[in-house]
Design goal:
Number of strands: 20
Shape: globular
Number of helices: 15
CATH superfamily of the largest domain: Aldehyde Dehydrogenase, Chain A, domain 1
Bound molecules: nicotinamide-adenine-dinucleotide
Largest sheet: 7 strands, mixed
Low-confidence stretches: none
Number of domains: 2
Length: about 450
């Protein structure tokens, strides 16, 4: 029997537990049960489906500390962040519950005498939902609940980096007593994920790297099923000369170093007007050096460890490549002393060149590359100089310029100054290699449906 071993990246990779990897026959059986349950679930209608899912809110609240501590142990996220994440995840869950009928109810499109045309939102069918580890509870809620509300039974695979959190989620979901087959989980790495999407499913819902997303899009193409792909990012933040650096340093810190820099939507490249370049770097350096890096189980810790040794090694190789090509380390650039595990100091790099991996690739760790610009057009070119298009930030007092630049940047979300797109009513998704389709808001619900038009004359 093959097993997934869960280790603690912040405690020298000590073993925490293990989970049996799903066999091909188990995967097939779960997909079969999901397909058999499709009609029952569809016929319940959106109101009843939403009602049956709603107790998950209280169950999550009740188990919040247990879930948060397990996440901290499995992925190295500071406990205070893990708890905040679950509170935030619940705002999304609440929005789904409160808005499902509004956005998935029928819509009249045309009425003329005895003629009535309407649109109804029907389920697509069984969804294979596959997610990463960086927001273990949020990734589950976002990848599963809107699907279930829309009427799609889900066979879910969590990341191999947090299998015990996956097990706890399964236990919590069991308490809902949903009809058999509506929600089930399979366990394993990419091999299991690939076996799952190759079964008789109707929809691939994937969050993860662009590399795997592209692979899944090929499979979806062959099977001719829909794929919704939420992928990687390399968001730029553009800081114009009129921005108030004192006011934005905290936000920039948070946008880059939350979750040890392992956030799809994080600011990964800072594009700063030359007149405020030195000031921006100086203030960020001071703030970063005041932060506590260490044991994520300690409530005073700001930055824990990376998720795994492989992530640490990837980050080290990206920074080494930059230094070899002439980058300057302003702060960090190495592992902290005396901490055993996947730790890396928060880092600022300048003297960045376009051929460096930290500029071209997604950097999933606490490393920020900073470049300067002179003209607005140069800033736009630098911001768009990436294969990714998940999001961007713009800092300027000039509203007209902010809107002009927003329309030039190729990305799914743009935050201007204190703006923060993270609300459940807003759509989220990427341009270019950052994905296909949108989650959240009414757009997220409707992505998960067949849209049927009925014209009665
Ligand atoms: P990953 O692509 O390696 O893995 C994601 C999931 O896919 C895991 O469950 C994994 O087991 C599975 N998987 C891997 N290979 C597979 C295959 N061939 N077939 C089917 N499933 C397979 O990503 P990761 O390292 O776990 O997560 C980090 C990445 O996720 C980053 O690129 C990050 O930007 C991205 N991400 C995107 C969003 C978003 O909403 N856009 C959110 C969070 C993370």
């Amino acid at each position: 029997m093959n097993k997934l071993i869960s280790t603690n990246p912040a405690k020298d990779y000590q073993k925490i537990g293990e989970v049996v990897i799903s066999s091909l026959s188990e995967i097939k059986e779960k997909v079969k049960l999901a397909n058999q349950s499709k009609k029952i679930w569809k016929d319940l209608g959106v109101k009843e489906r939403t009602k049956r899912l709603s107790p998950l809110y209280q169950l999550t609240e009740k188990k919040k500390n247990e879930i948060a501590m397990l996440i901290t142990k499995e992925i190295g996220k500071p406990i205070k962040e893990a708890i905040d994440d679950i509170d935030w995840d619940l705002t999304y869950f609440k929005w789904y519950l409160e808005n499902s009928e509004k956005y998935l109810g029928e819509e009249i499109t045309h009425r003329n005498g005895a003629t009535l045309h309407k649109v109804i939102y029907e389920p697509i069918g069984t969804a294979a939902s596959i997610v990463p580890w960086n927001f273990p509870y949020g990734n589950f809620l976002w990848g599963v609940i809107p699907n279930l509300i829309a009427g799609n039974p889900v066979v879910f695979k969590h990341s191999e980096e947090c299998p015990l959190t996956g097990k706890l989620i399964e236990k919590i979901m069991d308490e809902l007593n949903l009809p058999k087959g509506i929600f089930s989980e399979v366990y394993g790495d990419g091999k299991v994920g690939e076996q799952l999407v190759n079964q008789d499913i109707n929809l691939i819902w994937f969050t993860g790297s662009s590399k795997v997303g592209k692979r899944l899009y090929e499979i979806a193409g062959r099977k001719f099923v829909k794929a919704i792909l939420e992928l990687g990012g390399s968001n730029p933040a553009v800081i114009f000369g009129d921005a108030n650096i004192n006011e934005i340093t905290n936000k920039l810190y948070y946008k880059r170093f939350l979750n040890c820099g392992q956030v799809c939507d994080a600011v990964k490249r800072l594009v700063v007007h030359e007149s405020v370049f030195d000031e921006t770097v100086r203030q960020l350096k001071r703030l970063i050096e005041s932060k506590k890096v260490g044991d994520p189980e300690n409530t005073k810790t700001d930055i824990g460890s990376l998720v795994a040794k492989r992530q640490l090694e990837l980050l080290e190789s990206q920074v080494k490549d930059a230094i070899d090509k002439g980058a300057k380390v302003v702060t960090g650039g190495k592992k902290p002393e005396g901490l055993k595990g996947a730790y890396y100091l928060p880092t600022i790099l300048t003297n960045i060149k376009k051929n460096m991996r930290v500029w071209k690739e997604e950097v999933f760790g606490p490393v920020l590359s900073v470049v300067s610009f002179n003209t607005e057009q140069e800033a736009i070119n630098l911001a768009n100089d990436t294969n990714y298009g998940l999001g961007a930030e713009i800092y300027t007092k000039d509203q007209k310029r902010a809107l002009r630049v927003s329309s030039e940047i190729e990305a799914g979300t743009i935050n201007v100054n204190k703006g923060n797109h993270w609300l459940p009513c807003n759509p989220f998704g990427g341009y270019k290699d950052s994905g296909i389709g949108r989650e959240h808001g009414r757009w997220g619900f409707q992505e998960l449906c067949q849209i049927k038009n009925i014209a009665v004359g």
